[in-house]
From TrEMBL:
EC number: 5.1.1.1
Active-site feature positions: 51 (proton acceptor), 270 (proton acceptor)
Keywords, in A-Z order: Isomerase, Pyridoxal phosphate
Taxonomy, superkingdom: Bacteria
SMART domains, sorted: Ala_racemase_C
Residues engaged in binding substrate: 149, 327
Function of the protein: Catalyzes the interconversion of L-alanine and D-alanine. May also act on other amino acids.
Protein name per its UniProtKB record: Alanine racemase
Chain ranges of the Alanine racemase C-terminal domain: 249-384
Amino acid sequence: MTERTSQTQPTGGIPERAAGGVLHIDLDALASNWRTLRDHAGGAEAAAVVKANAYGTGIEKAVPALGKAGCRTFFVAHLSEAIRARAVAPDAAIYVLNGLFAGTCPAYAEHDLRPVLGSFEEIEEWAGFCRAQGRKRQAAIHVDTGMNRLGLTVPQGLTLKDRAELKDFETALLMSHFVSAEESDNPLNRRQIEAFEAVRSSLPGIPASLPNSSGIFLRDKPHYDLVRPGYALYGGNPTPDRDNPMRPVIGLEGRIVQLRWVEADDTVGYNGRWLALEKRRIATISVGYADGYPRSGSARGRSGDELLAGMAIVAGRRCSFAGNVSMDLITVDVTDVPEAQVQRGDTVTLIGGDLTIDEVGRRAGTIGYEILTNLGARYARAYRGGEG
């Protein structure tokens, strides 16, 4: 972990000394990442995706920090998240990605929020609400160009120009979403750009948005009017085939609650899935899958095996997990760390330094996105920076 400074701001109800883990969040790095992405966006506006509690970093902290950096547009997944974002960003444009739930139009109006409309039913409901109010409120329209998840189909999108309902509200944004932008050579990227361009051309004058974090770095530079970075803001690598241009934003430390020696042929953890081939020293860390560290990061096999399993940095050395990740605890093989350098009460790094969020995801057989968004409520949270 990086050295703590006077800028660190402990928050929440859990003091560090009482917490099994400490989540460090660098708001200055978050703001710096937004500026880097803005500078790569070819003059397009850079928004910020702050869904899933700002990818685990906290909406109430992340949104003001991004706002101070210059961000004026935010995207969330749910209406409840949008209301939280509005409370700390009174003048921002805030879009709700997961569509317009039936009967929720009044809440959007009350908090001046913008739904992302992805079906004719949603368009009709929003248009009807705006007509009844006598006010043309803003919304985005989502056209699906290949994800097959949310949004109008491309053929439906091409008929939008003939829909009378579009006269009842202001279409502030036409958007789609990349399927595989992190795979820079995937031909689907070009097909999506072409499909999006066809719909965009049929609706002249409406601002357009396609790129996510990785899409900003595609050679085709499909930046349009607004880019919507998410994962890269929080330190994830938007260019997996190249060095990460982002600064790390989060770090996670876990506290050692006990150390023990296990003998040769002893097993460690539930179901005895990890076997010590010789005497080994085990550190038990007060973090588990209830804290959002995935059970799939468990180490199974024998001591000394080359395993793609969870890892901790202990006194500057990488140490593999030993056995299954349990609900509240992780066991780590610290035999190679001098005994004097690792003691009860010490903290170990579970994310941070050269143990990046992307590597932690790979080692758990998942992606860094899942690690970030699952970071739990039992950590003490220490924020650094973010001041005006």
